[in-house]
Amino acid sequence: MVQKAKILLVDDRPENLLALEAILSALDQTLVRASSGEEALKALLTDDFAVILLDVQMPGMDGFETAAHIKRRERTRDIPIIFLTAINHGPHHTFRGYAAGAVDYISKPFDPWVLRAKVTVFVDLYMKNCQLREQAALLRLQLESGQAGRADGGQEPAGLLAELSARLAAVEEQAEALTKQLDDSADAAAVATAAHLERKLTGLRRALDALEPGAGSGASPVPSPS
Questions:
Q1: What is the C-alpha to C-alpha distance for residues 205 and 46, in angstroms, rounded to an integer?
Q2: How far apart are CA 73 and CA 83, in angstroms?
Q3: Closest alpha carbon to 62 in 36, 86, 80
Q4: Residue 50: pLDDT band by 50, 70, 90 thresholds?
Q5: Using one digit for the tens of pLDDT, what is the confidence trace for 60-78?
Q6: Coiled-coil intervals in this record (predicted)?
Q7: I want to staple 223 with a disulfide (CB 3.0 to 4.6 A). Which of 81, 112, 203, 215 is the partner?
Q8: Is 118 helix (H, G, I), strand (E, B) or coil?
Q9: Measured between alpha carbons, how far is 37 from 219 in angstroms, rounded to an integer?
C-alpha cells in the first residue's frame, strides 16, 4: 500500500482551514491542521510533510517568523512552503516571503485549480523522493549481502539485483515524465527540485550498475538521499 503524503495547513481562521481542506481533499492525501505558527512547529517535530501551506497574517508568530524557524531546523529546512496571503503590499512584501524561504506566494482569494495543481507538483516530488530512499535502503542491504556472500565464497544474488534494477527503472521513468511536465512551468523551485531528484537517481543507478557481475571487484559507494 502506498503511504499518503502529509500536507500541513497553517491558518488562524477555521473557515480558511475548512476551505483549504475542501480544495485539497480531491488529492486524497493526509491534511493536517495547525491554527498558529507554534502549533505548526510542534507538528513538524514528529511528522514529515510534502508541502506546507502557510498563512502570512497570523496573531503572535506570523508566517514569516514561522517560515524562518522551519528553515533553521535541519529536519524541516527542505520542506517547500507556499505562502497564502489576503493582502498585497507590493514587491517588497513578496520579496520578504521568498527571502523567508517560500517557494511560491499566492494571494487570496486564490484559484482552487491553481492551488491544487501547485500542491500536486510538490506531493509528486515528495513521493518520488520516498521511493528513492526505499531503493537506496534496498541497495545498501544488497551491497552488504553481496559482500558477505563473496566473503563466504558464495555467489552474487542476481535475482535481487534484477528486481532492484527494475524498481529503479520504474522510478526513473516516473521522474523523467515529471521533469518533462515541469519543463513548461514557470515554477523554478519545482524544476530545481526535480533536477535534484534526477541527480540522485543517476547516482543510485551507477551504484547499482557497479554491483552487476563483471563490473569490477569494487562497488561504487551507495548514495544516501536526504
A1: 31
A2: 18
A3: 36
A4: very high
A5: 899 889 999 999 998 898 8
A6: 161-188
A7: 203
A8: helix
A9: 46
